[in-house]
Amino acid sequence: MYRSKKFIDYLDEQGKKTNCQQLDFVIANSVIENHFLQGKLNTHSYVGKPSLITKNKPKPSLIDTSSSNFYDNLSTSLWNLTNKPSFETSYSLWQKEHDAMMSIKSLVMSSSPSLLPEDASASLAVVKTSKHNIDVSVNTISDLLSIIHANAYEESVEYNIDLKSLHNIKTELCKLDNMIGMNSMKQSILNQLVYFIQELHVGKDSSDFKHTVLYGPPGTGKTEVAKIIGNMYSKMGILKNNYFKKVTRNDLIAGYLGQTAIKTKKVIDECLGGVLFIDEAYSLANNSENDSYSKECLDILCESLSDHKNDLMVIIAGYEEELTHTFFKANKGLESRFIWRFTMEPYTSKELTSIFKKMVEEQGWVFLENNEVHESWFEKNKASFKNFGRDMELLLTYTKISHGRRVYGKDSDCRKKISKEDLQGGYDMLLSNRKIKEQPYFMHTIYT
């Protein structure tokens, strides 16, 4: 099919431009779409004055994009989304195109904002009309909550801190602050949070590792803390997805050589944009140098920690000595990739007392008058509570069972009121239901 040389020259000229204006693009796009592709320009030149296109008139031999007829020729164009202006000029053409695009953006923003490209969303950002500096020192998580309570976030105000993100993670901050004990861990999370919320981790082409170690014995809330961290960084935009997956050795290591790499990689791919939490991570490593299954898993994990450091957060948990002598020893590259180390300190007798009382209150139970449990009771029996929080849950369960036996057949007013007899009966039941009543044997005893 013959095509106008002048039209081809026009296209060549547009193709050579390195600084094409929006107006140029609109004109070129519309001309190609409405005239060339529809067979309207394949035999005509692209200069001079046109004649009107109507059902009763012949096709124009020439096209003039500066005339009012340009709008008539765009009647079926993608760009022709607004009413015809009262007069047509180059500016009205630009205005028309932008009005159309704003209509599209408004429609998308009202239904599916995620469909807009980043630059389009940025162009719709709220204009900041004032500034407000929040000048405070932050030493605890409670200080962050005080900032939130004292400063309501307004879209039109520019703040010297990321107040919006703080408000977004208020729920998670409250959960952390309300956790009994764990002061060292809270300080470590505060350090990490303040660092990330200021985007100090973001470099020119990459970012720092977010991978974290939670040291501590069972029952100190490591899984709950890991979930809170994941939720916070998702709401702050540091992680793209609010996704959390807890795994153990069986979820990563297969029974056949070659299958472990596939299994491990599949789990990692599922967690991209979110958090992969590996509990008892020491179990991934074996003291035997011939354990090729563990090596295969750790090699894939180590590689992924670097390849996906911008879009993945891996949190591992376990005793410090166990992780040092197994997990980190099995692959030297792992040590440098977990730059954040949080220590979950064992609970004191006072903290165990507070945890137990809090659980009783949360479940709608109370202590009988003059029968409230005291710290001295937990101090005397602390050796039996090596699993800390988990043991408090079990103790309360068995205490309620013991209580049920005591109040059976009595007035209903006696129910859900714990006595010292109930507590002691629950404690005896806890010990009798353990398969091993002695102090649990953990791997870390090998190294002590």
Outline the fold blueprint.
Elements: H1 5-16, H2 22-36, H3 69-73, H4 90-111, H5 118-123, E1 130-132, H6 141-150, E2 157-159, H7 163-168, H8 170-178, H9 183-197, E3 212-215, H10 222-235, E4 244-247, H11 249-252, H12 259-271, E5 275-278, H13 292-307, E6 313-318, H14 320-330, H15 332-337, E7 340-343, H16 349-362, E8 366-367, H17 375-381, H18 389-407, E9 417-418, H19 420-432
Helix pairs in contact: 6-8, 8-10, 12-13, 16-17, 16-18, 18-19
Structural class label = alpha/beta
Spans of at least 5 consecutive residues whose pLDDT stays below 50 are 45-55, 60-87, 100-105, 441-448
Rg over C-alpha atoms, rounded to the nearest angstrom: 34 Å
CATH topology heading of the largest domain: Rossmann fold
What gap, in angstroms, lies between the N and C termini?
87 Å
* The number of domains: 4
CATH domain class of the largest domain: Alpha Beta
Return the average pLDDT rounded to an integer.
80
Number of alpha- plus pi-helical segments? 19
Name the helicity range: 40-55%
Query: Would you report the number of β strands?
Result: 9
Strand share of the residues?
5-15%
Strand order of the largest sheet: 4-5-6-3-7
- Secondary-structure element string: HHHHHEHEHHHEHEHHEHEHHEHEHHEH
Going by CATH, the architecture of the largest domain would be: 3-Layer(aba) Sandwich
Please describe the biggest sheet, giving its number of strands, its sense, and whether it closes into a barrel.
Answer: 5 strands, parallel
CATH homology superfamily of the largest domain: P-loop containing nucleotide triphosphate hydrolases
